[in-house]
């Protein structure tokens, strides 16, 4: 806004001030001295109090007390401005330069909106499916939405069976259980992932062995997997399963991984929690292992607020998963159990949300890919940003736009950029901290890609930028501009 339009001096009358307030929409005037040094703000309330104290409209603003208003200095962050406004219960703050002259007026409503990493994005039809569940009183786990959601997802991805569950974590846990993973067993898992990939191994009393990433896709290194399998064979510690994670919407390099696991006769569980909608050589990510899992948590590419799916070509696995996820009730008229079950089924209401979300999956994928492309294009002149690669065999959903920063410069680092963006109320996050660096998994074996672990480097230098498919153009532009300012500071 043009601040000269709300500038006023002490020689102005109360009438002038009221007339000016009436003409401008800000609700605040900037009172400066003759040498243009900012003194204080003037509001309707200030004038009202003078009038109540007996002043009249032809008196001048020299009656105003000379209290100093709170101001911001140039170089302020949004976060500082917002905290200062909250602390002083004001909605405006003048920014003053070194000479005390106002150069800008910051309005709360223009700066208080954060840009978040990835938020739920509802489509048009979710509410209809949910309403139908209410109308028919199917407020239960199981029901027509659950059946339909499973069928629709399986058809869309070209997989024979899908089982809707309460979370992606529950799906991984069930998959391990279906492969009879138990105490004394080893399970290999990608190290660069979210803890939910690995935790279920420990739920089953088995021991995780962590496998490094390769630089082309950031996912499991076939080279490191091969060494781990060879060492496993030599030491009689071959794994009961390999959990292959597909990170940030991109499939792992499945051909060599499947070839290795076939050679060593180890089943694959694909943790495709982040890669629903992605493909590897044209085939759905999540459809390469004996079982695959997806997550519909709130921040994932589509969401049921909380939920997951187990997919498999093998009907026996799907049947058993349905059985175990509903408390393992034997087919008897009375309640009879011959094994331990879980309460892992998805509710019919949430499956209704899932059905609506599934209809817009392709749209969400192309929106996220466009966000990634925009970052990449608009920031292409900053040569020390390296974008997460997309190998020729991959069609990534770009669930999160991820990049690494080349080391160099004085304080250029992923953590410094994340902090800088936080000051602008823009949420960026580090790359997942690899599991072999986590205190809780520090005793687990780890196999690196080469001499230097790739995942350590990605963690040290990487970050994820806001990527929600419902980001506005302004939010995207604001994020890009903030990164530019950081780069050129
Ligand atoms: C989100 C996520 C999970 C867990 O899914 P939930 O539905 O949250 O239980 C597992 N693995 C990865 C890689 C994830 O990103």
TrEMBL record:
This is GDP-perosamine synthase. It comes from Mesorhizobium hungaricum. Pfam families: CBS, DegT_DnrJ_EryC1. GO terms for molecular function: GDP-4-dehydro-6-deoxy-D-mannose-4-aminotransferase activity; pyridoxal phosphate binding. It catalyses: GDP-alpha-D-perosamine + 2-oxoglutarate = GDP-4-dehydro-alpha-D-rhamnose + L-glutamate. The keyword Hydrolase does not apply. It comes from the Bacteria. It is an enzyme of class 2 (transferase). Residues 65-125 form the CBS domain. PROSITE patterns: CBS. Keywords: Aminotransferase, CBS domain, Pyridoxal phosphate, Transferase. Belongs to the DegT/DnrJ/EryC1 family. Its EC number is 2.6.1.102. Pathway: Bacterial outer membrane biogenesis; LPS O-antigen biosynthesis. The keyword Transferase applies. One of its GO terms (biological process) is polysaccharide biosynthetic process. Its cofactor is pyridoxal 5'-phosphate. Gene3D superfamilies: Aspartate Aminotransferase, domain 1, CBS-domain, Type I PLP-dependent aspartate aminotransferase-like (Major domain).
